[in-house]
## 1
Amino acid sequence: MSSPSHRCGGCGALLESVTELDREPNPTGRSWSCTYCGTSVPSVVGEKLSHRRDGSATDRRS
Ligand SMILES: [Zn+2]
């Protein structure tokens, strides 16, 4: 599985983690934007990155 990432359409930064996104609460859910330039990021991308844990594999529950 490839890790989720998103190339910002504004500044070209490769956004690979939620720390590179700004999250703004709004009445209809959450909206996301590039932390570097403020260009909005598709919510599906923001959600994917936000669900990603630190480290890599989430399937190590022995
Ligand atoms: Zn950007």
## 2
Amino acid sequence: MTQQAPYSFFITTSKGLEECLAEELKTLGAPATLSHFQGGISCEGTLEMAYRFCLWSRIANRVLLFLKAFDAYTPEALYAGIESIDWSDHMTEDSSFCVDFNLSSSQITHSHYAALKVKDAIVDQFRAKFGARPTVDTFHPDVRINVYLYHNEAHVSIDLAGESLHKRGYRDQSGGDAPLKENLAAGILQLTGFNADTPALVDPMCGSGTLGVEAGWIVQKRAPALNRKYFGFQGWQGHVPSLWRRLVEEANDILIRNPNHCPRIQCYDHNPKMVALATLNAKKAALEGIVHFSQQEFSDCTPIAEQGILVINPPYGERLGDEETLKDLYRLMGDRFKQQFPGWTAYVLAGNLELAKAIHLKPTRRFVLFNGPIECRLLKYEMYQGSGRKTS
Ligand SMILES: C[S@@+](CC[C@H](N)C(=O)[O-])C[C@H]1O[C@@H](n2cnc3c(N)ncnc32)[C@H](O)[C@@H]1O
């Protein structure tokens, strides 16, 4: 291996979720001091720790195993730097591989061309040594190589996840009306403090049901990648199958398929197609009887327990003319929170701050999150028993 344990890792996530990720990684065995960057966290640790991240992280996208950094002002320097890594430590001439190349603020400006240079350097090294070369597979390669070129310094890593960990497999990625990515939904739930002891969780505008399903998996203590078929480490030469199998067995033992006591997780949507889709997704996630879905207008939403968490990802009104209609819905949210939900805490993921003003309650906390490219605020509203709430 180019690098021996302790290994260095960079764990990526969506912008805005870095703090949530750091908290989560610590619960999964990461060291207490972590280096924070935009879009991810770096840390040192063992292969077992990296496997745990791949299996258990609800918030990460990828787990990158760092190999080497070097200056790459020109394509030739990039080629030479890649060639200086012994790739037979990581794959064989019979392996498949692909290169993900991201760059910014560098003299090399074409990521596609740079990825080809990297590929050529690897292929040429194998040909010279073994007279044969690995093939390229961009879908599910044995080894996915990640190169990040920033200020002319190339950071080369192996992508141990292989495919973004937010793809849990319970959801058709195209389904739903602006569905949340699974790791963003998990991050939102972490920020709400939701756990198996929460009395109740209600998502009154559930769409494809991502928040409900992620909540169900938290209650079940299900490792989110337990049933995933493909990881980037499976075809990597450094993979230790016995170690991975042990962690999967451990995760199977921890999983509580039918918890005796669990919060009531109730999701609604006024669109029956969304309710059907969310129900199907929850079934695929093995959450029948744990997460409940039904059709309901938000105006009919009432508390299902004395206390609990309301979590809402309402429409943002991206089309012209939507905004005025949606203002009524946001106004209604504020009214219903204070009139119907004393003792509850509500969280609204607001992608349109003008609309959020129509809620007309004073949030007690605001978290900046990104839903894809849209900068959002997760707004927290605490409704106090008896005294109503804090208003603006
Ligand atoms: C942005 S989507 C939610 C996406 C969801 N978080 C997911 O991951 O799929 C908003 C949802 O609110 C629902 N909705 C809009 N107005 C509603 C209302 N008045 N009552 C109930 N549901 C409503 C829409 O049908 C839509 O599915």
